[in-house]
User: Fold these one by one.
Assistant:
Number 1:
Amino acid sequence: MFKINKTLACSFSAILLLNSCAKFSSNEYTSVDKPETVVLQEEIDAYPGLQAIKSANAVLKLGMALSSAGYIAQDVSYRIAERNFDELVLETEMRHGDVVMADGALDLTGVKKFLNVAKAAGKFVYGNVLTWHTAQNSTYLNGLITGASGITTVNFESDAVGKAYPMTGNSTAVVELDPKGGGSKVLHIGNAATPANQSFSKIDITLPAGIKLGNCSQVALDILAPGSGGLFGSGMRLGINNRALTVYGSPSSFGAADNVWLTGGKVILPISNLNLTAEEKELTTFTLVFGSGTGSEITIWIM
């Protein structure tokens, strides 16, 4: 038993000795291709920077859009900008919604940090657009126009039946009850004796506090017009004070039917068509002049 064990031990030692003396041949090494990503990056790195490419045209300026956070931290975007570009523009951080707070105050902390880094690097910064259809601080902007919104309503309910409003011509504009029996008081423009042909109603308007004529967008009317009394013809007219009247479509072009009320303010006359002067836009009191242009028997009711 003992001899067997000893023989085994010697054999094991011989095996160990044999293994420890083994040598590796250089022929055992294999060749491994570079990863494709490494090869592609080496090709990109071999290209000269954009500045070297455009050196023949010194007038040409190259710009890059980037975020401020990465550039301030001098990450890869900073290194790309340093090697290739003359001018920088922030992708988002200089837009209205990013720097204007809800109360109108400016928060330019990030922008200033970006500008300082760009200045130290000798880069010119191109500011973002002043206005844009997105990225606006709507809370702040809507707050600016709160006082210039809403509807100024003119109706005749507080007027006595028979009250007359002045006209530009020789016809009449008189407060009457709705001829269709609706119970409301309406303004009856024109009559059989003196048709309102090129004769227009005049109503004095005082706008609410904080609103100017320049803030107003349109005059909207409810209208009742007989087929032979103003439904067609040469169109509605609108003006202020003594200026020339502007021509719009006839009541029928807005959807009015013969001797049927068109309600809901669907006869819409945009004020922008008047081409107001800067002085007129500042008005808070003025005379509104309106009506239908022609018709041998022009008779319309305005609600």
Number 2:
Amino acid sequence: MVILGGGFGGLVAAQTLKRASVEITLLDKRNFHLFQPLLYQVATGSLSPAEIAAPLRGILRHQKNVEVLLGEAVDIDPAAKQVILGDGGVFPYDSLIIATGSQTSYYGKDQWRENAPSLKSVEEALAMRHKLLYAFERAERAESEEEARAWLNFVIVGAGATGLELAGALAEIAHHTLKHDFRRIQPHEARIILMEGGPRVLSNYPEDLSAKAVEQLKTLNVEVMLGAFVTGIEHDEIHYKHGEVSGSIPARTVFWAGGVTATPFARKVAERLQAETDRNGRFKVNPDLTVPGHPEIFVVGDLALSLDDKGRPLPGVAQVAIQGGRYAANVIKARLKGKTLPPFKYFDKGDMAVIGRAAAVANIFGLHVSGFLAWFIWVFIHLVYIVEFQSRILVMIDWGFLYLTFSRRARLITGELTPDRPLQEE
């Protein structure tokens, strides 16, 4: 069998088949598993990339039925049951698990990507860190108050969990981490704006937790603009429409935390399989997570449009991918024994979003928690799910220092600079 993607879904699927009589080829365009929920901490200088990533070969080195290979799938041949790589490699399969994840959606405005980086990869996180820290450096050298203000205006588009996490971290950087680092500017005067097109933040959370989140954001002096739709993003300004009023904000630092969409590979696969997808490119899968008409092909994680007991689409979060990957692997194990399994049923453990130091909201098994307790639960759960033990220890130490001192050790501006703005990471 072939597994495409070494993220949460693909990795768990491979590990679940550890003792099964199958030969597994795990293909990924990266040689590491990335703990994506903490990617924003790389972008804001709290953690280094190596602390939230682990080499796939190292993770699976003791699993003898797995071969880990580096390569990017670009097409499949369902008739011949083959996966085709960008470098021309061809891999046959009897069963195929597609867990390649999604990419950021700019809602048809991909030209905004240049001026508003998103947060789906290590490279994007480093580019975001570069842009964030560089803004304070340029504000220190500004020749006028107006120019300094433009550099110290930070706009985050999208008020889901990632948007709130970025906004809270940015506020702590401005008010605490960089408090005494500059001589000409006052970092705490930075204006941090969280812009959301919907009527509330964390739209998938209960309304009371959304309200609590806004309260905690305001405590950190984050401005929350609801019902505001972006109409344009330039390198020094963002344009928006708020109700019937159009406006703009001079801002050289804009971060995108909007929605997601399918990758070109996923759309190619859907075309090959003549599979039905939703507007975001997610596959409408069978109850056993297979593609209709192709019982040998499973789709898990962000690319699968699965429904819960109430007929609502499951969210694109790590827990859905983990449980989906484990279920797909168990279906394959059952087939080897001539058995079948009941349909996939997602066990919802709840949702949580961290906003800052001792500030978070959580919905755990229907129990609504906010503040320090929610933050503590968030810390514990994320430490548990980090793959390597060594990384857990390093992250725990870094978080301890961050909690006590607001110090962020990874405040490094990497890459080359141009006279007025940073280059993207190579």
